[in-house]
Specification:
Helix content: 25-40%
Distance between the termini: 55 Å
Strand order of the largest sheet: 2-1-3-7-8-13
Largest sheet: 6 strands, mixed
Strand content: 5-15%
Radius of gyration: 21 Å
Shape: globular
Low-confidence stretches: 1-5, 272-282
Structural class: alpha/beta
């Protein structure tokens, strides 16, 4: 059995790459430090991050990452266990199941497990650098963990567009899993500390530093004595601060009166001096900073880069992205015209095999861009309206 004093585990994932996605890798390094600073041993924190941003030639502070304006370098001491091509849905699920040769969960029925994911999303999936993790497969992994007594209680925080669709109508209320998401099943999440606010030591980073929901829960965790704040209280604070999307909760709510520090740390390792000073701080107040819809951040990033340099290569990159987005929008417009599907309103996935196949068909015929994720609801509608897979494949061949 694991030592009761250190029987707390965290698995943290940034699912993206590219400098325009700076915020995700900064988010997860910040989360890593919260777990470590609050008592979870390093060998019980597992971090997956592509790790291409800190070393990017576009980074004005090589080897550093910042999650807020004039904040601390969160990359320092951020120990990443799985990098580059190893950041995959398969590795993530195997880590949760305790399988594989690398660092994996070795939790048991007494463990409190915290999972945090930050990246892009679409109906019923969250994205990794080259693949997707579907809600159905994630749910099956959680069921495996439950059946094999790999936790006593679990919390899951997901930052992604349409992240509520990972749990709505899927996660049961009797698994001792409490999940919270940045957005409801039908809307975008938002980047934060963007544009003119993304400044550190007088230099503009050129990309959003964080995500609104992630910033909300992590800055709350930084400010509070986590052994005196409940999960319920943090949810209410995060929901109030996250004004651009609807923060949601799912699963088991019976243990929301437990302290945050037993999931984002371990209260048995409570530092009395740090707790005292956190305890006498006034309730933090937050300024409003520049937020951008996650779907539009790459465009803003390229535009701002061109405005700073007026370089021909940056103008070309911006125009290429404008044309890319127009091409994707026109492609899905043709799909609606060809099929008569209604793109308005929420979608519900019931045929997961069809949905996965259609996504694969589209990627094979058209490639897959982050901006495509905005329109994945079209694929759900094709499946729910029983379009033949061969017909869909033919439509994609014509479109692309």
């Amino acid at each position: 059995m694991a030592d009761q004093k250190t029987d707390h585990w965290a698995v943290i994932v940034a699912g993206s790459n590219g400098f325009w996605n700076y915020r995700h890798q900064a988010d997860v390094c910040h989360a890593y430090h919260i777990m470590k600073d609050n008592g979870i041993p390093e060998d019980q924190i597992i971090l997956l991050s592509y790790d291409d941003v800190a070393s990017s030639s576009q980074n004005p502070f090589p080897g550093q990452l910042f999650n807020k304006p004039d904040g601390e370098d969160v990359y320092a001491g951020c120990n990443i266990d799985y990098k580059g091509k190893d950041v995959t849905p398969e590795n993530f699920m195997n880590i949760l199941k305790g399988k594989g040769d690398g660092k994996v969960l070795k939790s048991d029925s007494n463990s409190k497990v915290f999972i945090n994911f930050a990246d892009h999303g679409a109906p019923g999936l969250i994205a990794f650098p080259t693949k997707q993790l579907y809600a159905k497969d994630f749910h099956e992994t959680l069921l495996y963990m439950h059946e094999n007594k790999m936790y006593g209680e679990m919390t899951v925080y997901i930052e992604a567009c349409e992240s509520g669709s990972m749990f709505e109508g899927i996660l049961e209320d009797n698994l001792n899993i409490y999940a919270t998401t940045a957005a409801n099943p039908h809307e975008s999440s938002w980047g934060y500390y963007c544009g003119s606010d993304a400044v550190v030591q007088g230099k503009n980073i050129g990309s959003c530093l964080g995500d609104l929901y992630s910033i909300a829960w992590m800055e709350d965790s930084d400010a509070k004595d986590l052994c005196d704040e409940t999960l319920s209280s943090q949810f209410d604070i995060v929901k109030e601060r996250t004004t651009k999307s609807e923060v949601m909760k799912f699963g088991t709510f019976d243990f929301m009166d437990e302290f945050v520090g037993n999931f984002q740390g371990t209260c048995s390792a409570k530092n009395p001096i740090a707790s005292f000073f956190k305890g006498i701080k006034k309730e933090p107040t937050y300024e409003e900073f520049h937020a951008i819809d996650s779907r539009d951040i790459k465009m803003h990033y390229l535009h701002d880069k061109y405005v700073r340099t007026y370089a021909d290569e940056d103008a070309a990159a911006l125009m290429a992205e404008v044309k890319n987005r127009q091409s994707i929008e026109e492609r899905f417009s043709r799909l609606r015209a060809s099929t008569g599907i209604n793109a308005e309103g929420p979608v519900t996935i019931t045929d997961w095999d069809c949905y996965k196949t259609v996504v694969s068909q589209y990627e094979d015929k058209c490639g897959l861009d982050e901006y495509d994720l905005k329109y994945f609801g079209h694929f759900v509608r094709l499946c729910e309206e029983d379009f033949d897979l061969a017909t869909i494949d033919g439509l994609f061949a014509e479109m692309c």
